[in-house]
Specification:
Number of helices: 13
CATH class of one domain: Mainly Beta
Radius of gyration: 35 Å
CATH architecture of one domain: Distorted Sandwich
Largest sheet: 10 strands, antiparallel
Helix content: 25-40%
Number of strands: 21
CATH topology of one domain: Glucose Permease (Domain IIA)
Shape: elongated
CATH superfamily of one domain: Glucose Permease (Domain IIA)
Length: 506
């Protein structure tokens, strides 16, 4: 699983977990907990990284097992031919270019981003307000919310007021028909100051970016909608905590009064009565102080649970920080058969030593000399008639219409076919790639590396020493493919080469 896929699955799992918490524990938790959880979900979606851990639930799903094959050597060891290129089978081409789906996603993401940016810019230009001079009542509220830098507080005749906008230079826009010294003025201003104190404009920006990138995911739309409601509930809670529960009734009436103005929502702005009026009034009237430790405990539990569902499966073959090891270093660790040393016999009637080789050793050498020389490279499949469905070299991608390099050959094979090591070597990597799926890399002598892609199962592990003809994996259709097959690639001293030329029998 690559970083983007991990972000999609992990973020979606976190959203579902946050939904479950909101559904069952909303009345028992501080409202300020949920906006924080939604932001954690958005951050996970925006971070295309993998977080491998052995505790991940993904260890149980969609991860090929590195089952030990106990060094099983195939019965079919055919020298690597060079005549399979004449096959006329239908290609199972790798999709290495930009797909139409990716293009559609990019265009829609740009359109959504343009909508929010242009809409925000146009609305801000209309928010022409007059800044209120410092007032004792306003200074008292600023002190209660502990502002180190006073925000801009303005009045305007805009129907969108009251609202707050601006991430780095926050501005509060209040209705001009609301008297400064009025009780409603104090409550409305306290609510908007709570938005600024809680950095809700920054939260909305984060959620908007997430929505632009994941416009196709209904869970993200649901997350953004609920996050906006929860931010309003959290601000209501903050106001009552700052002013006291005695203001519950007056605060609810103020909310109803502001809701009757029917203000329209504004992109990236926080308003007083924009959403969930009924839910907010019920929460205001039933307000009670909940200890902070309850929210902390639930947040910690959420993070721990999310780590199980949202982290990447840890593979023993892909341990971070492992460096490639030269073949000579690992071969020293292998067990070699002891050599038969000549036997020295000293006859009783002679003073000179005579070196006599045992009869058994002579017979062994004779047998070895009669055996045919093993081929340097063999065909990676037991079926020598496997067609080459896509050759090495530049070709026009069937989906994108663009010319790109196909760095290997594709061999037709049914799902689960045995994959053989073309020569003795060492396993350098068993990992996952977005395009080539589960891929295995072997290092051989003379700077040669072979790569086996689109696999369904690994039968060897990182740093294993394999023998020629050993069954190392099973074919599959992982990655970007049109069907099950084997992609065989060759690197010679780090340079891509045509496998049919580099590995063919001499």
């Amino acid at each position: 699983m690559n970083g983007v896929q991990a972000a999609i699955f992990s973020g979606s799992a976190m959203i579902l977990l946050a939904l479950a918490l909101r559904l069952f524990l909303k009345k028992h938790l501080p409202h300020r907990v949920f906006p924080a959880l939604w932001c954690l979900c958005a951050l996970r979606l925006l971070l295309p990284i993998t977080i491998p851990t052995r505790l991940s639930v993904w260890n149980l799903l969609h991860t090929p097992t590195a089952a030990q094959a106990d060094g099983v050597i195939s019965d079919v060891l055919t020298p690597f031919p060079s005549l399979a290129t004449n096959s006329t089978a239908e290609p199972a081409a790798d999709i290495t270019g930009i797909s139409p789906m990716l293009l559609i996603w990019l265009v829609c993401a740009i359109l959504f981003a343009a909508y929010f940016v242009i809409g925000y810019a146009c609305m801000v230009r209309r928010f022409r307000g007059t800044r209120i001079a410092p007032q004792p009542s306003i200074d008292t509220l600023l002190d209660r919310f502990r502002f180190s830098r006073d925000p801009h507080i303005c009045v305007s005749n805009s129907r969108r007021a009251p609202l707050t906008f601006g991430v780095f230079r926050p501005t509060v826009l209040l209705p001009e028909d609301l008297p400064v010294g009025d009780a409603q003025f104090q409550l409305v201003l306290a609510h908007e100051l709570a938005h600024i104190r809680r950095k809700d404009c920054l939260r909305k920006l984060l959620l908007t970016v997430c929505l632009c990138l994941y416009w196709w995911n209904p869970l993200v739309w649901l997350m953004v909608w609920l996050a906006n409601r929860d931010m309003e509930l959290a601000c209501d809670e903050a106001v009552l905590r700052a002013l006291g529960p005695d203001h519950k009734k007056a605060y609810a009436l103020t909310l109803l009064d502001m809701a009757q103005r029917n203000p329209k929502s504004a992109p990236l702005c926080s308003g007083f009565a924009k959403s969930g009026t009924e839910e907010r009034i019920h929460a205001i009237l039933s307000f009670k102080r909940i200890p902070a430790w309850v929210g902390i405990c639930v947040s910690v539990l959420f993070v721990l649970t999310a780590s199980v569902f949202t982290t990447q499966a840890a593979s023993p073959n892909t341990i971070p920080g492992q460096e490639s090891v030269m073949q000579e270093e690992l071969l020293e660790e292998t067990v070699t058969a002891p050599k038969t040393e000549p036997v020295q016999i000293v006859p009783s009637d002679q003073t000179e030593l005579q070196e006599v080789e045992p009869e058994e050793s002579l017979q062994t050498e004779q047998v070895v000399s009669e055996q045919p020389e093993a081929p340097m490279y063999i065909w990676p499949l037991e079926n020598i008639e496997a067609a080459v469905t896509d050759a090495f070299g530049y070709r026009t991608n069937a989906l994108t219409g663009k010319e790109s390099l196909h760095p290997g050959v594709d061999l037709a094979a049914d799902y689960g076919t045995n994959v053989l090591a073309v020569a003795d070597g060492i396993v350098l990597d068993c990992s996952y790639d977005a395009a080539y799926g589960y891929i295995l890399t072997l290092e051989h002598e003379n700077g040669v590396q072979t790569q086996y892609a689109h696999l369904s199962e690994f039968l060897v592990e990182f740093r294993d020493v394999v023998r020629q003809g050993q069954i190392i994996a099973k074919t599959g259709d992982s990655g970007w493919t049109t069907g099950p097959h084997l992609h065989l690639g060759v690197l010679i001293n780090g340079e891509t080469a045509d496998p049919l030329e580099a590995l063919k029998s001499k």
